[in-house]
Amino acid sequence: MANQDQRSYDIQAILQEMRDEYWRSLEETEQTSTSEIREFVIFRLGNERYGIATGSAREVLRLPRLVPVPRLPAQIRGIINLRGLILAVTDLRPLLGLQSGELPARPQLIVAEAAGLTTALLTEGVEGIRSIAVDTIEPITEGLAGFPREAALGHVATDQGLLILLDLEHILARDEFIIDQKGGAA
């Protein structure tokens, strides 16, 4: 009978431990869920993965007919007609210190709006949208291959590798996007 009493005592202790663990997990969930979550459109350029805030992205599309415009800076690949709206196609690769060159095999555009500009960002592929907790974003300690650190919100380690989160407001506010009357950057 003493053995049976011992067993019932153990069950009570186990139940209490389970209750405590349950309440601890609820508190931890509540603490982690208070972290601000932001969503980013994830895309590829070369071997790197980047993200821009979804609030800046308007739509994603395949590259329609690209019309080259002479005497424009390297980051402007040309213009497109998107349902009657003429948009510049911006290649971020020169601004990020990546090799530019030919158009990607299957280019996709992200129509984005930031710093008072609407442009179509040239990408090598859009992966989708990802929710990221702000407290998991780590600052960039080194410049992005010649690109100022202020242009990046930071980076996040993911299962697919490093993800660099760009500050599109800062990038599109740069002087390289001011085109003078002669077609060159100001």
Biggest sheet features: 5 strands, mixed
Give the amount of beta strand, in percent: 35-45%
Indicate the radius of gyration in whole angstroms: 25 Å
H/E topology pattern:
HEEEEEEEEEEH
> Level of helix content?
10-25%
Using the 3D structure, state the CATH architecture of the largest domain.
Beta Barrel
Counted beta strands: 10
Which outline best applies? elongated
Distance between the first and last residues' Cα: 92 Å
Number of domains: 2
Mean pLDDT: 84
Explain how this protein is built.
Helix content is 20%, strand content 38%. It folds into two domains: 1-34; 37-177, OB fold (Dihydrolipoamide Acetyltransferase, E2P) (Beta Barrel), CATH 2.40.50. The model is unreliable at 4-8 (pLDDT under 50). The longest helix has 32 residues, at 2-33. Strand 4 (76-82) and strand 5 form a beta hairpin. The chain is elongated and about 80 Å long. With 186 residues, it is α+β, with helices and mostly antiparallel strands. The strands form two sheets. It has a five-stranded mixed beta sheet with strand order 8-1-2-10-9. Strands 3-6-7-5-4 form a five-stranded mixed beta sheet.
Protein traits:
single chain; 186 residues; alpha+beta; OB fold (Dihydrolipoamide Acetyltransferase, E2P); 2 domains; five-stranded mixed β-sheet; 2 helices; 10 strands; elongated
